[in-house]
Specification:
single chain, 267 residues, alpha/beta, Rossmann fold, 4-stranded antiparallel beta sheet, binds adenosine-5'-triphosphate, transport, ATP-binding, Iron complex transport system ATP-binding protein, Metal_Ion_Import_ABC
Length: 267
């Protein structure tokens, strides 16, 4: 289990996260949602060790993350960043092989086994036909699948994703969510994912995933728990200032729809 216990973080004198606590079990999917600038990326970077927390502790199976070497941390966590465009003209296979870096010394290069693992990862995301294509020439959605393959090749237990579906079209978004679902259900991966789409949490819950959500705002976790408990119309209004309605379909499956009104219009 990954335990984040009462952590805080500041950029110089600006505190962005204050007393954040949550736990994620193996095979569980945790969504982090909250308005722009609330600290989702900052929180992910604290877990990755890019940001050094100012208070609190983070442990995995009782071991302090801060006491792990960079290589150990890279074997435990992989990262799927927001799609932002890439400059270097590596091939798809070369990008995925970068996921094998924690398993090598700086002087060794990837071997045949690494290539097999990288190709398996590409097959899992349906991108094996793109192995020799230049990463820079792929669409945003295709790149995101390749980056997911890189994180699979890293063979980490925990995958951190920062708004991974932001640049995906409707079909690729569904495909990506299906992939994420399958990684938790079939590969027992733990996934922590920031998202701007509360419906993704319902999607996972509706598909019987062991899933939780935390809602961040004003430096703190305002609500956390099961999506159907936490993602209420009132909580969405309190966090985003947007009026919405929870619709139930097909028995008990939930879906949230904005109904247009914003904070300024609340009676
Ligand atoms: N390197 C930095 N130095 C100083 N302040 C920063 C830095 N990075 C982020 N911030 C500030 O910290 C706050 C949280 O930013 P962060 O990127 O974590 O938010 P976010 O929830 O991921 O936002 P978004 O949904 O827009 O991606 C913001 O106010 C941002 O301006």
């Amino acid at each position: 289990m990954l335990i984040i216990d009462n952590i805080s973080f500041s950029y110089e004198d600006k505190e962005v996260l204050e007393n954040i606590s949550f736990a994620v079990k193996k095979g569980q999917l945790l969504s982090i949602i909250g308005p722009n600038g609330c600290g989702k990326t900052t929180l992910i970077n604290c877990i990755l060790g890019v940001n050094r927390i100012t208070r609190g502790s983070m442990t995995h199976r009782g071991r302090e993350l801060d006491k792990m070497s960079a290589r150990e941390r890279a074997k435990l966590f992989s990262y799927v960043p927001q799609e932002k465009g890439h400059i270097f003209p590596y091939t798809v296979l070369e990008i995925v092989l970068m996921g094998r870096t924690p398993y090598h010394s700086i002087f060794s290069s990837p071997n045949g086994r690494d290539t097999d693992i990288a190709m398996e990862a590409l097959e899992m995301v349906g991108m094996e036909g793109f192995r020799d294509k230049l990463f820079t020439k792929l669409s945003g959605g295709e790149r995101q699948l390749v980056v997911l393959a890189r994180s699979l090749a890293q063979e980490s237990d925990i995958i951190l994703m920062d708004e991974p579906t932001a640049s995906l079209d409707y079909k690729n978004e569904i495909m990506f969510l299906e992939m994420v679902k399958s990684l938790c259900l079939n590969k027992n991966k733990t996934i922590i994912m920031s998202t701007h789409f509360p419906n993704h949490s319902f999607y996972f819950e509706n598909h019987n995933l062991d899933t939780r959500v935390i809602m961040l705002a004003d430096r703190k976790i305002k609500y956390q728990g099961l999506p159907s408990v936490v993602l209420t119309e009132d909580n969405v209004y309190n966090i985003y200032g947007v009026k919405s309605r929870i619709l139930t379909y097909d028995g008990n499956k939930k879906h949230i729809v904005p109904i247009g009104g914003t904070e300024n219009e609340k009676e």
